[in-house]
Amino acid sequence: MRIAASTTRGGIDDVITDMFGRAPTFTVVDVENGRIGNYEIIRNENAAASGGAGIATSQLMADRDVDAVLTGMLGPNAYNVLTAAGIKAYRASGMKVSEAIERMLRGELEEITSPSGGKGRGMGRGMGRRL
Amino acid sequence: MQIAVASGKGGTGKTTIAVNLACFNSLPIFDLDVEEPNDHVFIRGRSKETPVFRPVPSIDTEKCNACGKCREVCQYNAIVILKDSAFVFPEICHSCGACSYFCPEGAITELNRQMGKIVEVDGRIKLTYGQLEIGEASPIPIIKEVKKRAGKKAVLDCPPGVSCPMVESVRDADTIVLVAEPSPLSLHDLKLAVEVVRKLEKPFGVVINKHGLPFDIESYCRKEDIPVLSRIPFSPEIASAYSRGELLSSLEGIFEEIYDGVRGL
Lengths: 131, 265
Fold this sequence. Notes:
The complex is a heterodimer of chains A (131) and B (265). Chain A has helices at 53-63, 76-84, 97-105; strands at 2-7, 25-32, 35-43, 68-71, 88-91, 110-111. In chain A, strands 3-2-1-4-5-6 form a six-stranded mixed sheet, with helices on both faces. Chain A is globular, with a radius of gyration of 13 Å. Chain A is α/β, with parallel strands linked by helices and 131 residues long. Chain A has a single domain (2-111), classed as Nucleotidyltransferase, domain 5 (2-Layer Sandwich), CATH 3.30.420. Chain B has two domains: 2-45 and 134-263, P-loop containing nucleotide triphosphate hydrolases (Rossmann fold, 3-Layer(aba) Sandwich), CATH 3.40.50.300; 53-114, Alpha-Beta Plaits. Helices cover 30% and strands 29% of the residues of chain B. Chain B contains nine helices and eleven strands. Chain B has helices spanning 14-24, 69-73, 98-102, 140-148, 164-170, 184-199, 218-223, 236-243, 252-263; strands at 2-6, 29-31, 46-59, 79-82, 85-88, 108-122, 126-132, 154-157, 175-180, 204-211, 228-233. The mean pLDDT of chain B is 95. At the A-B interface, helix 1 and helix 2 of A face strand 4 of B.
C-alpha cells in the first residue's frame, strides 16, 4: 500500500500540512505488512500553479499509484479527481507523517468523505464538478 | 471619445460616477464589470439578451487511449487522465484549443459552452452590459464582446483591481477617469492604477468621491501632477439615493463639469 502525505520539507518526521493542492512536497511512503517501508519525498510542482492546483496534484497522486492521501483540506475539484481515481483521503493535518500512518493503519483517522466548503484554498477559482 | 471609469480599489464609486456621467451627458454606457454588473440597477428599461459561448474540449472516450498529450499541453490543469480516458474541467479551461490541436487520436472536439450573456437595455440612455456565468474562470471574453458594441462615444464602467479584467477594459479607451476616495486603501490602489494607465500611455484624471473624509489623497495627485477633475462630497443623501437606484440629479452640474474636464485632458 502506498500512502502520500502533504508536507512542507518532507520526510517521515515532518508535519502534515492543511493544504493539499498547494503543499510544497509530498512524502510518499510504502507500507508493507503493516509496517512503514521505503519513502520518497517529491516536490509538488503545482504548488505555485495559477489555477487548477488541486486537480493537477490529484493527478500526481494517481500517476504515482498512491492508494491513500493524508492531508487537511480538499477542495471540490481535488476531492472529485481523487474519488474518481479510487484514492482515499484521511484528515491528518498537524500530525507527524509516521504517527499519522500508524494511526491510519489502526483505523483511527477520519476519512474525508466530502470536499471542504466552497472552493479549495487555492488561488484559482475551482468550483468543483463531478467526474 | 470612449471614457473608461476605473479605480483600483473597489467601492470607491466607479458605478456612481460612470452612470451619472453617462446619463447627464446623454452618452451610451457599457458595464464591463461582468462578474458583478450593476449599472442596470440605475438604468432600467426593456432589455434584450444574447448568449456568449466559448469552445471547450469534449472527449470521445471511444477514441481516447489516455496517452496524456492533452494534459501535457494544457497550461491550466483543466484535464486529468484517469484509468483509460481524459476528463475535462470546463470551468478551468481557457479555451486555448491546444488539447484538440495536439490530440494524436482525434478524440477531442470543441463544443460551445455558454459562459455568459450580453444584455442591452433601452433606458434613459442605452446600457449594454455583460454577465459572466458563476464558476467561469475568465471574464475577458465577455468584456471583449461588450466592448465590440461600443462606438465612438461611450462611457465604460470598468471592473475593480488592476489585473487582466481592468487592463482589458481600459486598454482601448481614449481617456481614463480614476475614481478615488480619501482613504489609505484607495490611495494605495490608486497608485497601482496610475502605474497601469501610465504604461498604457493614456490621458487620465482623478475624481475624488466621498470628498471630506479625513484623509489626504490630493497631495499625492499634486505631487504626481495628476489633474483632479472633480470632487463629489461625502454625504448620506448620496449614499441613500444610490441605495435606491436613483441618479444624483442635484449634482448634474458636477457631472457636466467632469465631462468637460475629461475632454480637456
